[in-house]
Amino acid sequence: MNRSNTLLSVLLLAVLSASACSGPKPGTVCLACSAGEGTIALTMVADTLPANPSLLTFQITITSITFTPASGTPTTVNLSPALTVDLMRLQSDTVFLGTFAKIPAAQYTSVTLTISNGSITFLNDTNTTLSSCPASTICPLSVAAGNPVATFSFAVTQNAVTGIGIDLNYLNTVTITGSTLAANFSNTKVLSAFTLPRAGSNLAAGQLDLIEDFTGVVSVGNPAVTVTSASVTGRGALTANATTNTNLDADPTGTLCTSPTQGTVSSCVSSNEAASMDVVLNSDGTLSVQEIEPLLATLKDTVEGIVVSINSNTQFVLVVTDLIPAAQNSLIGSLSLGTGLTVNIPNPNPFLVDTKGLLVQNNFGGNFSSFHGQTNTSAIHLGQTVAVHVTAFTAAVGSSIASSTADTVTLRWSRFTATTSVNSSPAFSITGFPSFFNASGAAQVQSFLGTQGADGVTSLDGVPTTSNLIVNNPVAMRALFIENSGDTLVPAFFAAKVRQH
What we know:
By secondary structure, this protein is mostly beta strands. It contains 3 helices and 32 strands.
């Protein structure tokens, strides 16, 4: 993969803040409903990016969902609190919208989402100004409310669970007309829908979908485990039951969850720690913990984001994609998703890598050490997603973005869509990177084989193996991106998730 380190011009004006709200917790499975009622379990993904511009974040707030039958009265479920979703995560990941009981048994024709507001952060990778955003500049875009409809025929059966997936099409939502960029949920074919599990899914029998890398503050029960995201992200809380098959992984420092007892989540994570959790939506509407990993023993101001500029050996800029505030006296209260942050690392701790069980260090130690243990931006590359522990902070003023000092830099998951150039297994090759990577040529992606759901195994969606990827077609992934200063590492990507629509 060829890369230019030419710095991007960064213009991050004030963007819409995320609603301080949380999303729905799992509903009660409707196995004791009144006669003629059933349950809908609903998830959401997204695909088909526009050629331009390059989207970094695309945040919406969903306030209600309406299920319309072929005849009779539609059923509207209000999400209280509302649920905020970063649609750019849904290239590779899945969001859980909820399990909704007491839905009248009938044949249904559509699902409608009510969206209250939204915002986009994008890189103008055209040669002209778009909606007042100069070329080669990162800018915000406000998105108007809307009610996109997924026309789809499905049945809700008495005392049964129907799994439905919603798919948002970026290309049909975000359009360029002349020099104006707009996102419009009233465009045709913004949403489509499908029955869960999705065709081509490698989920086990009895599983409908997989919700991955949900981060926040953990509350450990027996067997219920809840992870609550920061209020500014608006992603709410996710509660699932641990099982004897739950994978327990060590934190990036290698000091937490080093000798867990299988099947006992409390031997790995403790309440009030920060954690990342993967959850399976089961065919009976319940949720099970597939994997959990502690991130922080003590809550600290932590900002995760996409690297968009490298200014010096000790300074880079990111666009915020996730936040974990300190439990007390947080410094980062003015940050929101999609905003910019200048990060200064004058004297950082050795860098960390969050592998979530992938055997990157064991099997690709040389690649791993190109980031792990490093202490300056020679290890950092455009397009990487990193989490930083903020120790000092200056809020944004006017057109000047917020700035910070950080003492810890941890590599986390880049979520993006590229084009398959070689379909092989376990490694395959991609080209056609998003422009914020500022890269050309091809790069190799390493997947990890094994039983789906086992620890350290790449999750595949839409293909049984990476040998079945369609050459010259888009492929989405969530992967660790590791490169050296010469951009010569093979592989450069280590995939936790590979999805082909």
